[in-house]
Design brief:
single chain; 484 residues; alpha/beta; Nucleotidyltransferase, domain 5; 20% strand
Length: 484
């Protein structure tokens, strides 16, 4: 048996598969995010450990004979977070999360530093790890001086599991400290933010083992101390492993808390100016490119809280098929935006609000606004040389046929839905565990899923939605000017 742990923004999910990749068991535990100031987003790493104990306790309770058969663990996690540890491995402050934008000023300075974009292959976004450390150096100098190691979220969980300071290429590529083409820490990039190489973890490919379970942790979780722990992956690279998107043109659209449009690349071909992320993949010799919008289902969740209505109910009111764009326009920049604007200060807007508009109109506007933003990411990916012809849809939003048909029409390409089962980051992490424990080649393990249905673009509505998208795209500079 092999376990994939997905350390998500709102909770930890455990997925157990057997050697044939059949799902045997699942378990989940949640934790909270603190937002003590505008733009701040923090979590307590101790909550992740408690969640890990909880999911294994639940697995043991429901499947008593399962845990002794586990041979490998792989962890996927939300990227870009900063966990600062002292020389004894103790956490010095809460983790600054991927959606924490307090370091916008530091990110802009780093981004303007010579060679930073060239070596990292990316714009330095405020959510990345390096500007967070600059912020700590300037605002919490005592903590910065005591920092002996910096780990990413899933790497902290791996550290607790094994006692090894390790990271994989895909997660490390989002720090602005990794030479993404060379797949190694860059002294130039470390110097730019006042960091040292000895503060960095050891680097592995995601399918490589970093060690076995610490004896005390193995006893605590009810596992064998010989259980192999894989280096794992950042959440999007893990999702790509789960969906089988390893090679050039293999892609998916993820409608989760954030929205992601991702494609595998066989070579390193960055285009930082497009605000597209170019990162190492979780397997050797491959990379991936993606555009990210910060609020996808999070936009619908915001509306659901505002209207005191479950998000699924809001989506259901729109029916199963699209019928043309609405007149109410929503800009989904509730937490700023990454692709293509790289604007941490930008905020959302509703344009054209009428006294006659009700919950259905608001729901349509929100789903359309998120979909228009995903079209922005496709244009950015095209400018970076990516060539996408079809996609697989994953994430909670993909359960809405209306939403998937809308995206297919806006992107002008068919979108497929997997037949059944698990195809997200937890499965990708379990697949990495299988490779680490058995030595299996990633290409033989990380295959594409069986497709249940494919939703084609609506050619009869293509022109109408194209006009609506152009109006959406023209709204950004006007809204930005109003907020300046």
């Amino acid at each position: 048996m092999f376990v994939g742990l997905d350390l998500g923004t709102s909770g930890l999910r455990a997925l157990v598969i057997d050697a044939e990749q059949r799902v045997v068991a699942t378990s989940e535990a949640s934790y909270n995010t603190a937002r003590p100031h505008p733009g701040w987003s923090e979590q307590n790493p101790a909550d992740w450990i408690a969640a890990c104990r909880a999911v294994f306790a639940a697995l043991h309770a429901d499947h008593t004979a399962l845990l002794p058969a586990i041979r490998g663990i792989g962890v996927s996690g939300h990227m870009h977070g900063a966990i600062l540890l002292d020389e004894k491995g103790a956490v010095l402050r809460p983790c600054m999360m991927w959606n924490d934008t307090r370091s916008a000023e530091q990110a802009a300075r780093l981004d303007a530093t010579p060679q930073v974009r060239d070596l990292s292959g990316n714009i330095v976004f405020p959510g990345f790890t390096a500007p967070k450390l600059l912020w700590v150096a300037e605002n919490e100098p005592d903590i910065f001086a005591r920092t002996a190691k910096v780990l990413l979220p899933k790497d902290y969980l791996n550290f607790w599991l094994t006692g090894v300071y390790a990271s994989d290429m895909s997660d490390s590529a989002g720090t602005s400290w990794l030479d993404v083409g060379a797949r190694d820490w860059s002294q130039t990039l470390l110097d730019a933010s006042g960091m040292r190489r000895d503060q960095m973890p050891l680097l592995f490919e995601g399918n490589q083992p970093i060690g076995t379970l610490h004896l005390d942790v193995a006893a605590d979780l009810g596992l064998s101390p010989d259980t192999v722990v894989a280096a794992g992956a950042g959440d999007n690279a893990a999702a790509a492993c789960g969906i089988g998107a390893l090679s050039e043109g293999d892609g998916f659209v993820s409608l989760g808390t954030s929205g992601v449009l991702l494609t595998g690349r066989d070579s390193y071909a960055p285009n930082a100016a497009s605000a597209v992320h170019t990162f190492c993949h979780a397997v050797p010799g491959r990379w991936y490119q993606m555009g990210v919008i910060l609020a996808a289902t999070d936009s619908l969740n915001w509306l659901a809280r505002t209207l005191n209505t479950p998000p699924a109910d809001l989506a259901t009111t729109l029916g199963p098929t699209i019928g043309g764009p609405g007149r109410l326009r929503f800009l989904p920049y509730l937490s700023g935006e990454r692709t293509p604007h790289n604007d941490a200060d930008l905020r959302g807007a509703l344009i054209g609000l009428d006294i006659a508009h009700g919950p259905r109109d608001l729901s349509q506007a929100v789903i359309e606004g998120v979909s228009f933003a995903l079209r922005d990411t496709l244009e950015a990916l095209k400018s970076a040389g990516a060539d996408l012809h079809s996609l697989i849809a994953i994430g909670g939003g993909a359960q809405s046929p209306y939403w998937v048909e809308l995206i297919a029409t806006l992107l002008d390409m068919p979108i497929s839905l997997p037949a059944k089962g698990e195809f997200g980051a937890a499965l990708g992490a379990a697949r990495l565990a299988l490779c680490a424990a058995t030595g299996a080649a990633p290409e033989t393990v990380m295959t594409r899923p069986e497709i249940a249905t494919t939703i084609d673009p609506r050619s009869d509505l293509r022109a109408a939605y194209e006009d609506a998208y152009r109006a959406f795209a023209s709204s950004y500079p006007a809204v930005k000017a109003l907020q300046s």
